[in-house]
Amino acid sequence: MNYLELEETASTNTYATQHAGELADMTMVTARRQSAGRGQRGNSWESEPGRNLTFSLFFRPPRSLHPRSQFFISEAVALAIADALAGRGVEAMVKWPNDIYCGDRKICGILIEHSLFGDHIRHTVAGAGINVNQREFRSDAPNPVSMVQLLGHDTDLTAFRAEVAQALERRLSVLGGDTEGPHREYLSRLWRGDGGMYPFRDVRAGEEIEATIDGVAPDGTLRLRLRDGSVRDYAFKEVEFRL
Fold it and tell me: How far apart are CA 128 and CA 212, in angstroms?
């Protein structure tokens, strides 16, 4: 893993994208402070400077991985972060598509962006913000949590960064090979994937529903089974989980 440490930048994802021609494969860009950290579809991410791990991983997926299979990258990154948290004694699950939850509280947000060229992915920028040592959250985010709140003590950011990097290297090293095994593991670690009935908002239909997670397709499509037995498939942002 290569490391590039920045004191401040608007967004590590934006920085990595803008400097794609200069960055070596498997470069982790970190920043003590992000002035415009981004989440999925433009959502903001609150992070107290110097207290959390915010980074963007720049890497070039194997050419054998077709753009239609890019969700496998999302799964690998999410599982890697969950692995690193587990190594610190924090039990974490993956909330579809790739947020990381501890119980019903969000500890990590992930934003993955690809540059496509023809029939392959030229490069990927996987950004993540992990709440590590932040003790108080002041934004209107409904359910944040941090490692220090769960563990009761601070975590060394440099050591934890290395653990996250190792987990990412391990998970991403199998891309282009076996995808069924990691996909099954992703499903087994899915938040609210226990077969229970949970509340959702169907954004497309503009209605509240109750459903059980019936699976996630390899392209990332979420399948829900409603109380009446009918099934609905959703792409990102077409359905919302209700707490």
Answer: 28
Tokens for 55?
A: 């980074």
- CA 212 → CA 39, 185, 195, 236, distances in Å? 26, 18, 6, 17
How far apart CA 172 and CA 85 sit, in angstroms, is 17
Which one has a higher pLDDT value, 10 or 92? 92
> What pTM was computed for the model?
0.91
CA atoms within 13 A on the CB side of 239: 24
Is there a contact between 125 and 13 (Cβ–Cβ < 8 Å)?
yes
Q: For residue 142, which of 25, 226, 241, 53 has the smallest C-alpha distance?
A: 241
- Write down the pLDDT at residue 242: 95
Domains of the chain: 2-188 (3.30.930.10), 198-241 (2.30.30)
Residue 151 banded pLDDT, cuts 50, 70, 90:
very high
Q: How far apart are the first and last CA of the chain?
A: 37
